[in-house]
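Hi support team,

I'm opening this ticket because the web form for multi-chain structure prediction keeps timing out on my end. I have pasted the exact lines I submitted so you can reproduce it. The total is 685 residues across two entries, so I didn't expect it to be a heavy job. Is there a limit I'm missing, or should I split the entries? Thanks in advance, R.K.
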Amino acid sequence: MRETLFGSKKSGEVEKQEERSQQKSGVLAKQAEQRKGPEKRQSRSGRTYEVAKIVHPTETKDYVRSNTWAGLETVGTEEWVRAKLDRGEKYNGFTPTKRATLTNAEWMKLLHHVAVEVLILHQVGRDLKQVCYPRVDGAKTWRQTKAFDITSENGAPHVTSSAPQAPSMILQAVLEKPGSEQDQSSLAREVKEVIAMNMVVNSEASWMRTTLRDANIRFAITKRLVQLTGKRIPDVTISNATTLEDLFNAFKTKEQPKKLSQTEQLRGLAARVPNVKVSSKRHTPIDKEKQVGRWKLIEQELMARNLPVTGSRLPQAKARIDN
Amino acid sequence: MASKRISTPAKHLLGGFRHAYRHQQCRALTTESTPSPNATLAQTYHDAHLTSTPTEPILEADISPIPPATPSSPSTRPPPPQQYTPPRNPFIKPTHLTLHAFPTLEPTTYTTYPSTHLLLPLRKDILHRAIIYEADSTRQGSANTRWRDEVHGSGRKIRPQKGTGSARLGDKKSPMLKGGGVAFGPKPRDFSTGLQRAVYDLAWRTALSYRYARGELIVLEGQPAIPEKIHQDSRERWMRDLLRHHRMGHADGRTLFVTRYRSDSLWESLRGQKVYGVGQRKVKDTVGDSRDARALTVEEVDVKDLLELGRVAVEKGALERMLREHESDLTPTQKLGAWRRMMGGSAAAVVEEVYDFVGIGV
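Hello R.K., no limit was hit. The queue was backed up. Here is the completed structure from your submission:
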């Protein structure tokens, strides 16, 4: 009777053994599953999906039940359905994914490099669109463009190099037909190498003042810079630009004034509108007293009476009516 | 006969027919010798030569010398009157506009437009007038109330004029009473106002110029359409990715696409969800207006739409249509078509010439 109700020692041991073996087999099964990976099935729309594991909290020791829904996948909403149906096609644009942030000196180097490439193509008579085509594998045109000099000849821009084979090397590196799609990593590498070049750049340099009256040249330089850096400039700026310096000023990072009084509009106000005074700080009552010349006396008297000179947060500072 | 007359030069018409028919072949009745007095007509006819001989006209038309007309041979005929081409306006400066491919937004080429169309100065007052005019014409004007003559009820005087001690009252529909009519409440009416077409057109081009000056006008080469290879179910997310990549989405102020014709692929990729208040049904599937962008055709767009969102991405054909439809304030030679014909040649050459004229550049 006792044995039927409470079980014998033998049966207990047998049960324990069975449990252990089951656990072992469960672990083994789990390990086998992990090795196989999750089961994959194909939905009616043709999309393959992984079948989710059914996790029993009693079986898995490391299962932790969550008290909130933070971090859990929300299943069954409209958004979830749309995300499931999405095929995942990637968008590839003309500009790089990450916009390059360059210093002004780096912009100057990049502008010089691109301007030289475009002007060489222009001099030879090739289509300026080719500057945006992929380069020949392994070509490092920045090594040649570094040594070029941009000058003006009869009002037209002209490039010259001390190395006689440099122009031909650049022309060979630039493909005449697009061929393959532009590789974003190669563009990023070109920017990185150009800005790392050891080149002395000066905003007062003569090459910056080269006039660019041909809109095709301006357009080609701008397009290549947009392709390399992702920074776009307004069309009106390209239209009004006459020199390389104008293009540089459009592309460079402008210094934002820290105070409103330092902005261009307010700096010239004193000259244009003489009855308006612009100050960088708030005009307080103390400033008004200082203007009149009364402040020195006020300060002296307050200090003589051992009273606080500035501040109104002290209990004695403000007059109160006590009832 | 008329043709003969036309071929007769003016000098002969004026100076008599002395030399007019000199070389014409005709049967002439005159002979070399004067006919004898007794010769019959038949004899004279027989003696006459078939080939014409130069004869002096009977009438000696010795008209006082009139200056002869200009030489009349075909080679020296005066040229036909040419169309008058007025001199080029030096104050209309051409400006460049970059065209982009869709969906890569690669700058492919550029075109020029005159400053009368895209470089107008900012006139906030004109823009304000145009927007108010548009808003007025958009008003439904359907607010309606019942006045005292429309409220249901009889006209019976509800209490005697005198003797009650209270104020005198007529019918129960008086606006002073609860349940009565509204005193001069709104009635359905037309709120539309007028605005001179020239002012409205100027406002339209001022709005486009404002966008252009700030670099917020992106012109697309052709009709923007999602490529076929992108699956229908992915298009909404793909469009959001495109806008985020180019900083044209919600975080950057949203974009308005303006096209000539409605493109289903673009409209459906901008599928928004308009959610109304608590307790009301969620209205789904507002096509062409999503959180990141809006799409409108050229016929649907107005000045307010052009100024509302962060930027305008307009198809070139749509931009041309807008500019040509809204240039009534310009003189015939300033209109887009006439300006282009006057400029002629390539845009680059035109720009160079203008720069030379104005004296910009070295």
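A quick check on our side: Residues 145-185 of chain B form one domain. Let us know if the file doesn't open in your viewer.
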